[in-house]
Predict the 3D structure of the following.
Amino acid sequence: MKLGKTMKKLSAMIMAFAMIFSLVGFSGNTVTAEAASNPVKLHSTVINFVKYGMTNYYVYIAVDTNSASNKKVYVHHSTYNQGWVDTAASFYKKADANTEIWRAYVSGNEATDFVIKYVGDGVTYWDNNNYKNYDAERDTLGSSVNVRALPLRSAYSNYYCVQATVNNLAYNKNVKVVYTNNNWATSKTANLSYYFSESGTNAERWKVDIPVTNKDKFQYYITYTVNGKTYVDNNWGANYDISYYRAY
């Protein structure tokens, strides 16, 4: 009888360890774990600056507003000479009543491989892209985001090159920019055209050149219609203007 109880305890311990290790993935020096109900996930990445072989980028992170009273959010990323380190994100703006957007800036002397780390009320959660990790230059869209404007400095003095990344949800799709040159007294709509597919992802880049007659009052947002549904990126209600750009 005692042996039977001992075997049952041993079996239970083995099953418990198996469950724990099934939640944990290893990559380099970092441990990445997925929670069943995760209050944090990658929203998107935007390259901010490319020069002299360096790439600086922003990582935008969606956080459940009601998940904890005390939140800390990090991009846990690889580096060329220091292993894996944390770069703290800070609150950026509210996306809606239940979602906050946090943003971290990662400088160009770092590698682009990263995961998202969230500490809420002493509990740590991870978003590790289903154990594959993220790449800042490849994963411009998180799994739950289907359209994202990619602001950049135009090469033309009287035109602004509007670009957007969309998840390729179907072959037939329509990507548009709605813009104004007079602070929304009137507005116009233009179609973006397919530019290229982003390597290693399901995302596509689309673009169009828009004439700008008044840079101080120029604003825009992106719409993406596919499978009978329209997705909008209006910079969380603030719209985009010429001040939102990445430099080369």
Summary: The two ends are 74 Å apart (CA to CA). The domain at 147-241 is CATH 2.60.40.2440 (Immunoglobulin-like). The chain has one helix and 20 strands.
